[in-house]
Write a structure and sequence with these properties.
636 residues, 3 domains, Metallo-beta-lactamase, Chain A, RNA exonuclease activity (chains A, B), GMP Synthetase, Chain A, domain 3, 28 strands, alpha/beta, RMMBL (chains A, B), globular, seven-stranded mixed beta sheet, homodimer, Rossmann fold, zinc ion binding (chains A, B)
């Protein structure tokens, strides 16, 4: 009998002893980090809400109760009963019964009304029919990504359960080593931006944090070094957020034999899938052979175990993970690792925004304990201060008004995820408040899809924005001014020839995508203002236009090769960034509770990490490091 | 066709083009770091001494010429011819013909006379008989270790050649990576003394430097971490010297799948075998199960490729190794690694003695290039200054005289390798010069055997000592006063009951071995002086006696359990150390040519490495580090 089986046997008898005799326990297993209790008396569990809470507290585990099939009300009867319990205003769009697990997945426009006060409606459902309800939100804007992910996971339920059981046994295995240490190995994004990847290791456990690409370069994380191998012996992958410089090469891990879990937030899982598939698409369009097939993206999604902000999750015998809001993009996280029983704590900042933005609350920097912080330093340079957000917004409003007065269009190249939604919120509010005239706002490229994903997960947005979406039905993303460009060139031509409008289009650095087509339509129009709201990297067309080039090469487009003479105005509005600036980074560390002993400054160019590392050392008297790639630091 | 075969083909045609038509080349292969040229015309090669030298220079390889069997004078005729060429005074004790390689191994008391001026006698032999002579020294004191190693290697010739061919192909494989970096991973002996072990790695190559135990502890190097695995993919092991805290666990590598070469000096190979077998013996006697069997020690010896001081040796496609005298014990080395084509240079000090001692020249610290030095710090503490050697010697002489005057014995616990021979030289000289009276000097335990190995390799001893052994037949180790205790308890009893004498016996810290027996015979004798000449570690009986204990527990001995009351005098004579003191360590770095940019201070307790690291930083403005175990540093 394996040690995990012994452990489960002991837990089963503890549970049986704790529960009243009338409640049966037929089996106890692990699924991923959770302990699953099978019973013939699901209704009794639902009637005694404290039972599970008490067991969870005593066993220090997350617990799921699962009914045995024979204790369930048959599906047809159950369907009517469930709909009867849920208030109509919840607007249920789908009920999906899974007999294997006794779960009923309820998709509703208002999940809160399905859940009820402190989960009362959910318990009511189980009391009536025995089934365990699971609630998901009906996306208020239809997102093909979300619906694809959901139907894919539904189709793969069985394999996914096998994976979770295997992972569960791995997590709860006995500790083997008497030794104690904590190490971090840098596989990328040290003294550079891009290819974020780290290994956190103990004598028991190895965890990969992020696995990104490096934009504008073929460099990949150093996955081939012994510290990362064999990949299939890694215990877990933790993904801080979906941007490709953190996520692009995660599917590659599965190609090379990794078969374990990915811990991340649910929106990050969906955005990751969207961006990885786009990454393959772009590679194919540019004639590069992509490093993996789309099947590997599906593997990644299938192996993802979603974690909510603040939930303490066992991911290895000696490691607990907690994700916290990082304020950077939807679902972005600061990853906190608690190692051993109070032995050591490490936080990886991922990419952060310290102050609140229109979209997100500021990054969390309050933890029970932290000894070492691995900290992004993108804008860590001594002069990396950004314009105040209010000033930036006013400047954008001025540009829009000036352009509208001329009768022209505002053409904004923007990244699909994050920046676009921020601009949408600014423009929607300005229009609502009458600070700019009413006019259509066209969204081209992946922006619409990314926005749909945002509005599927309002819990991950800033408090007041979430409340507007939840309670007041004032979802700003549903404002009628927004138009999704979905009819291709014809629609674009019509818009280009028409009245004043605002156009947001990818790619954000004018390196491809529909913005190229907009440029060919509007580039010769002196009334149009091309407005840059994000960083334009060296070597991109965006940077060239920003720098005043007025002849740009146009390959393809509507069959026209050659060059295009730009007549449009060019404006740059700074200050819309998903990253904390130097002050924000410093504030994150300064106000961090508790203040870490050591800080590894990463994810910034050489100058930024050196500046930031030395500033933290001098101003706050911490031990700071500016690691190189391929180094290993030992703590304790 | 593999790339190595292609490479050999190209080399073969280069060689054929270079050689006169009359000299045939039948095959070209690699054996370890050497290029082997097979020919039917060995005599022609011998007649044209410059041919091989020119080829070696052009190809930048070490070259061995091997005759095809059919070009050789038959063994019986050849034996007479060889003996005819060699002067009688060379005192040949053995001729061993190996038809597979066309080599004849000549064991002689005077190898120099077999070699002749600039190798003239060797060439003469080949010119006459075609065979390639290889010369080894007849040990002037019979060493069972040396003779066992030699006969074992003779018996394993065939397998050894297979190993060398395999290693040769590995060394000369094509480089695969475009990447360039150099890393050092610490597996042991950081902020501690013991379990020395490091990995030097590049994108191509991983080399393990040392693999020792930690005396007084069960701690072993961190061989289980991914950086060291799989062990069979390590390219090479380099051993700086034979002491167990550097060599004890090398046989374990073979148990765990390593099957590659060990590069070290020839005397280190022999001493390593001696000490490892003793290590197993001690473990067995103490009832511990040893970590490996003696068969693994034989594997280690079989896989050793001896390297001479100063020889630049290819050990990987991108790494050249050169060993230099370290002055610490017989065969001890500073290991210098030249990486890439001028890309980077790292030196590992191993254990060093900076100043000349009676036995050895001081450590070499002159290199073509060195960017990083990994430096021992045993006596790196701010107060770790040792007594001047002349004062120490005088003190020892005084103790001997005082004891002799009382009619007693001087009982010296000493380590078999190094310390004992140093004391032997002091005492022999003092006696020769009349500074102490003539009396027998008894050598007990492994001391005699270790001394025999020293006198087999006079090239590795201090210049003037070597010259005395070579040229003047004044081998001090052969002085008639020295007596090897080889008749056990009876002999000891007789000596203990007899006239004044000096007794050197292992173990050096009175933790076991024949010193325990001497203690039981002489412990109650007030005329005996127990004289400590080496460091006594915490917790050893030696340290207790040094501290004034006069009741010591005696387990076993001549059947007597219980305690022994000590009546003998106890003296400590400092200053006989194989290690540089703080001044010596600093001088090694200060006068090093070139001065390294970075120094990793290792092999010292926490205080010593911190003191030494900070002193080097402040006094010489170098980047210094005091690594922990399990860290990885990247250079370039």
């Amino acid at each position: 009998m394996s040690t995990v089986d012994k452990q489960l046997d002991e837990i089963a008898s503890t549970i049986t002893n704790q529960l009243p005799d009338r409640i049966s326990v037929t089996d106890v297993t692990y699924e991923g980090p959770e302990l699953v209790i099978y019973t013939r008396d699901p209704k009794e569990f639902a009637r005694n809400g404290d039972l599970v809470r008490n067991l969870a507290g005593q066993l220090r585990k997350r617990i799921t109760v699962r009914p045995e099939p024979d204790s369930l009300t048959p599906e047809a009867d159950a369907r009517a009963a469930v709909l009867d319990v849920i208030p109509d205003k919840a607007d249920v769009s789908e009920l999906d019964f899974h007999e294997d697990t006794g779960e009923v997945v309820i998709q509703a426009a208002k999940p809160g009304m399905v859940i009820g006060r402190h989960g009362s409606t959910l318990r009511e459902i189980t009391k009536k029919v025995g089934w365990t309800p699971e609630v998901v939100r009906t996306p208020p804007i239809e997102s093909s990504t979300v619906s694809n992910v959901r139907s894919f996971l539904k189709q793969e339920r069985e394999e996914r359960r096998d994976i979770l059981e295997r992972v569960g046994r791995q997590i709860h295995r006995d500790q083997m080593s008497d030794d104690e240490w904590v190490r971090i190995t840098t596989l990328g994004c040290c003294r550079e931006v891009g290819r974020a990847s780290f290994i956190l290791s103990t004598p028991e456990t190895r965890i990969l944090i992020d696995c990104g690409d490096k934009p504008g370069s073929d460099d990949t994380p150093y996955l081939q070094i012994p510290e990362a191998n064999p990949l299939n012996s890694l215990d877990a992958v933790v993904l801080t957020h979906a941007h490709l410089d953190h996520s692009a090469l995660i599917p590659l891990l599965f190609k090379y034999g990794y078969d374990g879990p990915i811990y991340t937030t649910e929106p990050t899982r969906d955005l990751m899938g969207l961006l990885q598939l786009d990454y393959l698409d772009v590679a194919a369009k540019e004639g590069r052979s992509p490093p993996y097939e789309s099947a590997m993206v599906r593997e990644a999604v299938k192996h993802t175990i979603p974690v909510e902000y603040g939930d303490v999750t066992d991911i290895a015998p000696d490691v607990k993970l907690t994700l916290h809001n990082a304020g950077h993009i939807l679902g972005s996280s600061v990853a906190h690792f608690h190692i051993g029983d109070g032995y050591y704590n490490v936080a990886f900042s991922g990419d952060i925004h310290y102050d609140d933005t229109r979209l997100f609350n500021g990054a969390v920097n309050d933890f029970p304990r932290v000894e070492t912080l691995v900290m992004e330093s993108t804008y860590g340079g001594r002069n990396d201060y950004q314009t105040d957000q209010a000033d930036s917004e006013q400047r954008l409003i001025d540009v829009i008004n000036e352009t509208h007065d001329k009768g022209g269009k505002v053409l904004i190249p923007a990244f699909a995820v994050g920046r676009s939604q921020e601009i949408m919120l600014v423009v929607e509010e300005a229009m609502r408040k009458g600070e700019i005239p009413e006019m259509p706002i066209h969204l081209d490229g992946m922006i619409w899809e990314a926005t749909a994903i945002h509005s599927t997960y309002p819990e991950y947005l800033r408090d007041d924005l979430r409340d507007r979406i939840f309670h007041d039905d004032e979802n700003p993303f549903l404002a009628p001014q927004f138009n999704h460009i979905d009819a291709g060139q014809e629609e674009r031509e019509e818009i280009a020839a028409g009245d004043p409008a605002i156009i947001l289009s990818t790619s954000g650095m004018v390196t491809g995508g529909p913005i190229m087509s907009w440029l060919s339509h509007l580039g010769g129009d002196p009334d149009t203002t091309m407005t840059f709201v994000g960083y334009q990297a060296q070597g991109t067309l965006g940077r060239r236009i920003q720098n005043g080039w007025d002849e740009v090469p146009m390959n393809g487009g509507r069959g026209r090769g050659g060059t295009l003479s730009l007549e449009l105005d060019v404006e740059t509005v700074d200050g819309f960034s998903g990253h904390a600036d130097r002050q924000g980074l410093e504030n994150f560390v300064k106000t961090m509770n508790p203040r870490p002993e050591k800080v590894l400054c990463v994810h910034g160019d050489e100058r930024s990490v050196q500046d930031f590392s030395s500033a933290l050392y001098h101003n706050y008297n911490m031990r700071t490091f500016a690691p190189k790639n391929l180094e290993t630091f030992r703590f304790k």
